[in-house]
Specification:
The structure holds two protein chains of two kinds. By secondary structure, chain A is of the alpha+beta class. Chain A contains two helices and four strands, in the order αββαββ. In chain A, 25% of the residues lie in helices and 32% in strands. The chains are: A alpha+beta, B alpha/beta.
């Protein structure tokens, strides 16, 4: 998750002009969730996102069986959710 | 005539105490040996006079019934405690039974039933109002009540206030994905399928108020 975070950090400063960022780590018995919520300009997640580094983050997360969800809308900031299953939690 | 069953009447409402005293004083089988207006007073009186059965209200100022039962048990007091209250929610019933109440009746019980219950409690038998019995049965029959985490309770409270996933997510500054995940865990723990049932179950169990 660490290199994904670096990407997000650069993005926050240079692209979306976020003033505040809230990181929330949620431990559940079967998975780990990381939310990164900023109050930046937001964007339309359905549009082309190649320039935002999300593809790379998603790819790295997929390497550990995780997923990346992007929630955003112009004017509403952006929240990224990275979900990683914990070992031994297979159902 | 055998020795009467000695009763201690505990209720914060004087009229209720008078009513109970009147009910039992007309019967040689019983003797009201004391009254108390709250749990602390009940513990004090029970240590001073010999009591067989305590008719105990639950919600009282200063010290409620559950705490009083706990104190009496800690003191090794032998009296049986029969709860007599207006409330039959999980939040009231379970702690009282766990604390060691012998019986649990509601204040709308007919007088015959109350008298029978006191006799039964004196003999060490459990007496439960029908609604209280079903509360307990429902508890036993339901899936293991995994405790909700503080965060899950936060989510549930906001949902109970009518929040959508989106509004709850914005309020807690997390993603909707995380809110949905919390909700799924909440549903599993409460044994329900949707948010409406989760909210009503949480109210019923006293998890949120």
């Amino acid at each position: 998750m660490a290199s994904g975070l670096e990407n997000e950090y650069v993005t926050l400063h240079e692209v979306v002009k976020a003033a505040k960022v809230r990181l929330t780590l949620t431990y559940l018995d079967d998975m780990l969730l990381l939310d990164v919520a900023d109050d930046g300009v937001g964007f339309d997640p359905a549009a082309d996102t190649a320039g935002y580094g999300l593809v790379g983050m998603r790819h790295r997360l997929a390497g550990v069986g995780g997923t990346l969800t992007v929630e955003s809308a112009p004017g509403y900031g952006t929240t990224l959710n990275a979900a990683v299953p914990l070992p031994g939690a297979d159902r | 005539m055998t020795t009467p069953i000695r009763l201690l009447v505990v209720d914060d409402h004087p009229i209720m105490r008078d009513g109970l005293r009147g009910l039992f004083s007309g019967d040689d089988e019983f003797e009201v040996v004391g009254e108390a207006g709250d749990g602390a007073e009940a513990v004090a009186v029970a240590q001073r006079v010999e009591v067989d059965v305590i008719l105990m209200d639950l919600r009282m100022p200063t010290m409620g019934g559950v705490e009083a039962i706990t104190r009496l048990r800690q003191l090794g007091h032998p009296a049986r405690v029969l709860i007599l209250t207006t409330y039959d929610t999980d939040r009231d019933v379970l702690p009282a039974i766990e604390a060691g109440a012998t019986g649990y009746l509601l204040k709308d019980a007919p007088r015959d039933e109350l008298i029978r219950a006191v006799r039964a409690a004196y003999a060490g038998h459990s007496v439960l109002a029908p609604s209280v019995a079903s509360t307990l049965m429902g508890r036993v029959g339901s899936p293991p009540a995994d405790a909700l985490t503080p965060r899950e309770l936060d989510v549930l409270r906001l949902v109970a206030e009518g929040g959508t996933n989106q509004s709850v997510a914005r309020r807690l500054l997390v993603s909707e994905t995380t809110i949905k995940t919390h909700l799924l865990h909440i549903y599993t723990k409460l044994g329900v399928r949707d948010r409406a049932a989760a909210v009503s179950t949480a109210y019923k169990r006293g998890l949120i108020s």
